[in-house]
Every structure is written in structure tokens, then in C-alpha cells.
């Protein structure tokens, strides 16, 4: 917990999303259940496909907890600059860390939530992801935020996508087809194979950033000039 406190005091002095909140430097928050692909997404964007053994190295970075389970130990922060400059916070989705998500968006003015869902997940986990996503969408601190739901398509051993993009069942299972109009205009889902992203310029990511820019600049929301 002291690490978390230290983190927030660091945020208070950070030139981007200040606690008082009038900063125009957009802040993104990547959330989603554990092992959905969030950290992989952040480093694929930041480093691109140059990090060839990312899969193996990320497994090594995980520290075993008392049950012997390996979990990502902390949050990550990076800045992206390809389309417009923004700060990106990425927080683990393990059960313990899910309780702390709130602290991030209550302390930092968040302009865009990127919510990652593993397209190969079982029904129960999809329902859990849906519950978390809809709680976020109803949070007062995120009432103007853009929501980009990233369905991580993944490939099986034969390199076939595990998620059927045409049927796109997660749109319905995550309740994205029946959003209230106050949320609907600032929400969109994107299907991508995160492990295959080739940096910020990748066209899959470019589409997401184009949508985020449109929402962030809209006068119904933050009305930013990017
Ligand atoms: N095949 C495949 N594996 C992926 C993909 N994205 C992530 N992975 C793997 O899935 C595992 C979990 O990915 P992470 O990026 O660490 O997941 P996370 O969402 O950050 O998980 P937490 O930090 O626990 O919340 C890692 O071993 C990744 O290499 C993908 O698109 N395809
Ligand atoms: Mg992680």
C-alpha cells in the first residue's frame, strides 16, 4: 500500500494529469481482467515488434505470489506521441489490483479508458469483465471519458484467430449493443491481435486513436484541441 501512496504523490507533481484536473494532456488508463493482454499491448505500442521474445520475457517478469501464482506486480506508465501526445497508465487486473483501479481514476483525470478483453475467455470471465466495464462506465469521474474496448483476438497453435470477428458475439455478451446514449457515443470496440501489433503506427491501433481523438475533441465531452 505504501507503494501506491508513493505513486500518487508522484502523480501530484507530474506535469500531466494533475489531481486538480485541468490539464489538457490526455491520460489513458488501460484496464481489464488479469492476463487479458494489457501489458503486452502497452509494450507492443511503445517498443513494437522489435521486442521479439516479449511473451517469454513477460512471463519471467512476473513474480510468484504466496500461492505460487505468477502475477504482474505493478502498474506501468508510458507516453505515446504518434497521433497526439498522451500518458498511458496500465494497471494489472488481478483480483487485488481490481480493488485499486478506482484510486487511479479518482486521483488522475482520465480522458480515455482502454478496456482489454481476452477474446478466448470462458463465459464466466466474460461476465466478470462485463460487470467491471459497466461499473467503470457509470463512474462519475469517467462520465466524459472515451471507452475503447479492445477484444484481444489471439491466435491458436495453428495461427487461427480464437475470436470470430464476423459473429462478434462479445459485442452482445459485453452489453455494448445496448448502452445508454450518454455512454454510447463515446464507446467503441476494436478487435485486434495484441501480440501482433507493430507499434503505435499499426493500423489497428491507429483506428482506435482516431476514435479517441474524435471523442476527446467533442464539445459534449472534454472538448480538447488536439
Ligand atoms: N497468443 C497471444 N498471447 C498473448 C496475447 N496478448 C497477451 N498474450 C500473452 O498472455 C499473457 C498475459 O498477457 P499480459 O499482457 O501479461 O496480460 P495483462 O492483461 O497485463 O495481465 P495482468 O497484468 O495479470 O492484469 C502473456 O503471456 C502474453 O504474452 C495475444 O494477443 N496473443
Ligand atoms: Mg500486466
From TrEMBL:
Region forming the signal peptide: none
Metal-binding listed as a keyword: yes
One Pfam family this sequence matches: Arf
TM stretches of this protein: none
Residues bound to GTP: 32-39, 93, 152-156
Superkingdom classification of source: Eukaryota
InterPro entries recorded: P-loop_NTPase, Small_GTPase_ARF, Small_GTPase_ARF/SAR
SMART domains, sorted: ARF
Keyword entries, A-Z: GTP-binding, Magnesium, Metal-binding, Nucleotide-binding
MF terms (GO), sorted A to Z: GTP binding; GTPase activity; metal ion binding
Residues holding Mg(2+): 39
Protein name, per record: ADP-ribosylation factor
Native species: Effrenium voratum
Amino acid at each position: 500500500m505504501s507503494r501506491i501512496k508513493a505513486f500518487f504523490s508522484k502523480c501530484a507533481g507530474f506535469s500531466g494529469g494533475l489531481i486538480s484536473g485541468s490539464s489538457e494532456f490526455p491520460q489513458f488508463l488501460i484496464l481489464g481482467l488479469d492476463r487479458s493482454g494489457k501489458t503486452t499491448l502497452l509494450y507492443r505500442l511503445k517498443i513494437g515488434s522489435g521486442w521479439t521474445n516479449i511473451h517469454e520475457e513477460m512471463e519471467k517478469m512476473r513474480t510468484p505470489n504466496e500461492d505460487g501464482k505468477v502475477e504482474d506486480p505493478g502498474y506501468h506508465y508510458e507516453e505515446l506521441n504518434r497521433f497526439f501526445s498522451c500518458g498511458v497508465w496500465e494497471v494489472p487486473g488481478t483480483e487485488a489490483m481490481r480493488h485499486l483501479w478506482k484510486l487511479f481514476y479518482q486521483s488522475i483525470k482520465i480522458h480515455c479508458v482502454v478496456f482489454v478483453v481476452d477474446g478466448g475467455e470462458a463465459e464466466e470471465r466474460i461476465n466478470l469483465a462485463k460487470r467491471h466495464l459497466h461499473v467503470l462506465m457509470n463512474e462519475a469521474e469517467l462520465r466524459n471519458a472515451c471507452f475503447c474496448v479492445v477484444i484481444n483476438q489471439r491466435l491458436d497453435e495453428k495461427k487461427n484467430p480464437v475470436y470470430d470477428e464476423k459473429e462478434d458475439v462479445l459485442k452482445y455478451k459485453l452489453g455494448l449493443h445496448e448502452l445508454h446514449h450518454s455512454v454510447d457515443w463515446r464507446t467503441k470496440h476494436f478487435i485486434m491481435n495484441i501480440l501482433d501489433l507493430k507499434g503505435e503506427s499499426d493500423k489497428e491501433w491507429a483506428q482506435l486513436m482516431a476514435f479517441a481523438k474524435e471523442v476527446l475533441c467533442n464539445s459534449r465531452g472534454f472538448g480538447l484541441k488536439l
